[in-house]
Design a protein that fits this description.
147 residues, alpha/beta, Rossmann fold, five-stranded parallel sheet, 38% helix
C-alpha cells in the first residue's frame, strides 16, 4: 500500500517559521517519523513539498493514481485553491487533511477549508503528531475496505 503525503507552501520552513504556532520540528523530521511509522504498518509513504499551486496540481495528478490514499497539508492553498481541491477529487483517492495548528482557533480566513468537504477527515492542532494520526487512520480505513 502506497500513501502519498503532500505538503504545501512554507512547510519547507518548519522548525524556523513561527515555532510558537507550528513547533520546532522540521519537515524532514516529520517525514522521517512518517517513514518509520509506515514501515511499522508495512506501507510505503511518498512525501513531497511544493510552494507552487500548479506544481501541487501536477503532483496530485501524476502521483495520486499510484497511491491508495493521500495525506495533504495544503498550507495556504487550504483556504482558496479550488484547483488543488479539484485535482484531489479527480484522482478518486481517499484524502485526509492535516494542519499543524488548530485552524479553527486562528484568524477567520484560516478557518475555512475548501479541501475539507472532499476529505475523509481533518486532523488539526496536534502538531507533527497529526501526520501520524492521519497515517494510522487512513491505513486503517483502507485496510477495512480491502485496499
Amino acid at each position: 500500500m502506497r500513501i502519498l503525503v503532500i505538503n504545501g507552501p512554507n512547510l519547507n520552513l518548519l522548525g524556523r517559521r513561527q515555532p510558537e504556532v507550528y513547533g520546532t520540528t522540521t519537515l524532514a523530521q516529520i517525514e522521517e517519523r512518517l517513514a518509520q511509522r509506515a514501515r511499522e504498518l508495512d506501507v510505503e509513504v511518498a512525501c513531497f513539498q511544493t510552494n507552487h499551486e500548479g506544481e501541487m496540481v501536477d503532483l496530485i495528478q501524476r502521483e495520486g493514481e499510484r497511491a491508495q490514499g493521500i495525506i495533504i497539508n495544503p498550507g495556504a492553498f487550504t483556504h482558496y485553491s479550488y484547483a488543488v481541491r479539484d485535482a484531489l477529487e479527480s484522482v478518486g483517492r481517499p484524502v485526509v487533511e492535516v494542519h499543524l495548528s488548530n485552524i479553527h482557533a486562528r484568524e477567520g480566513f484560516r478557518r475555512r477549508s475548501v479541501v475539507a468537504p472532499i476529505a475523509l477527515g481533518q486532523v488539526s492542532g496536534l502538531g507533527w503528531r497529526g501526520y501520524l494520526v492521519a497515517l494510522e487512520a487512513l491505513v486503517g480505513i483502507l485496510r477495512e475496505e480491502g485496499a
